[in-house]
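Most newcomers find our protein records easier to grasp once they have seen one. To make this concrete, we reproduce a full record directly below:

…
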Amino acid sequence: MPESSSPASTSPGSTSPTSASNASSSTTPAEATAAASAASTGATAPTEATAKRSRRGRPGYDRETLINKATEVFVSRGYDGTSMDTVARELGITKSAIYHHVKSKEELLHLAISRGIRALDSAVETESLRENLTALERLQLAVRASVVILIEYHHSVTLLLRVRGNSPLERDALEARRNIDAKVRALVESAIAEGGLRSDFTPGLITRLLFGMVNSITEWYRPGYPVDPDTIAEAVTTMAFQGLES
């Protein structure tokens, strides 16, 4: 409600003509000039509310950091059970700060899992096409690289492994996973044909067992685990292809 401009109205912060005069007499010429300039242009000092409005909605993270943090929230709380309000609250920012970077929760999911898919697919593809190696050697390198990627993109790959095809985006992610599986299965088939792997197990079974071992890392690995990624990758590869016998 606007304050009354009636001469009779007073407030604790009001000044009498005498006090205003005294204040004027103590003002320096420079201050008086600045005050007159502000008055002539209608400029006023920003209020606390104005400052808050200007800050509201400004992004608190850059895009990459936002995706990383949101991925962690999706993994810890489950994608379907996590709203954008929850993401914003967990990150300590406003929803408008999130929408500064993405249009929707589904786009955020797409960005979160795409990095894991791209990294895994690239790693398997690279190792599959290496020259002057047997199929078994290429398969071993592909498995090893998959472990390293899974650890490096831990939350992204974990989220990828949890999608169930509940939306077109999730179905696309499942199809991408099947394409990666197919590349590994092709290596398995070649290794069997070359005599590098035993033939009494089907390529499909071997592929599932290999990925089962690799993917299980998402269930127990956490940043700060006292064994480095290369050692874990070496252990998985050794167990998968040589067993545990000394």
